Backbone:
């Protein structure tokens, strides 16, 4: 099933892209919850964390690596930042193509809401 993020990958709808390679795309969230809020997604359309298989291990492992690299480039790696992956309705997932939220530039509280 095509999602909003598949359409962004296909350049059918615009996004403010900050990183791309053959497997991963990262772009600014349209409704930022922090001064910097980026979504890092695999180009492979996997609906939820529950749909991951062993074969996806290396692909999904790239997401936090790219998050940390972007945090360094954007200058908030040392002060700290938050990464989040929401799963299904109770987890707050609204787009059914897995994605890692990278948020930085403010202090985060715990537990998350
Ligand atoms: P989640 O609620 O974890 O599924 O996150 C989905 C995220 O996608 C939300 O933070 C939305 O603000 C974001 N979003 C929705 N539409 C777009 C879009 N067209 N471009 C960028 N981010 C979007």
Residues:
């Amino acid at each position: 099933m095509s999602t909003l993020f598949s359409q962004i990958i296909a350049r059918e709808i615009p996004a403010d892209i900050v990183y791309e390679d053959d497997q991963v795309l990262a772009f600014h969230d349209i409704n930022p919850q922090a001064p910097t809020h980026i979504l890092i997604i695999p180009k492979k359309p996997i609906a939820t964390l529950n749909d991951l298989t062993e074969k996806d291990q290396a692909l999904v492992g790239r997401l936090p690596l790219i998050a940390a690299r972007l945090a360094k480039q954007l200058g908030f790696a040392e002060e700290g930042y938050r990464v989040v992956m929401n799963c299904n309705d109770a987890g707050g997932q609204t787009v059914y193509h897995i994605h890692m939220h990278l948020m930085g530039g403010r202090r985060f509280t715990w537990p998350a809401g």
About this structure: The first strand starts at residue 17 and ends at 20. The helical segments are 4-9, 57-74. Residues 4, 15, 29-31, 39, 86, 92-95 surround adenosine monophosphate (CB under 6 Å).
